[in-house]
Design brief:
This protein is mainly alpha-helical and about 90 residues long. About 70% of the residues lie in helices and about 0% in strands. InterPro entries: DNA_partition_ParG, Ribbon_hlx_hlx.
Length: about 90
């Protein structure tokens, strides 16, 4: 009887190794219980995970195009009275 071969497992190990190379960095944050429960509830309501929700919100906050757009909206809001007066409702 010949010894078992590990060859069939090699593709699985190779895939796992590739996954490890492309993994993201881990960040640890501390949240109070109430906030964590609210975060979990929001993630569940959106059909996502807490990690995905935090990542999405953080990416949105760091998006320079979004910041520029929002500052443009603020400037427009500052002049809304003029637009209403000049062009009507």
């Amino acid at each position: 009887m010949s010894p078992p071969t590990l060859r069939p497992l090699w593709p699985c190990v190779q895939r796992a190794r590739c996954t490890v190379k492309s993994m993201s960095r881990h960040v640890t944050i501390r949240l109070d219980e109430e906030f964590h429960e609210r975060l979990k509830a929001r993630a569940a309501a959106l059909g996502t995970t807490v990690t995905a929700l935090i990542t999405e919100v953080t990416e949105r906050e760091l998006d320079e195009d979004r910041k520029n757009f929002l500052s443009g909206i603020e400037e427009f809001a500052d002049h809304w009275g003029y637009f209403q007066e000049r062009f009507g409702n």
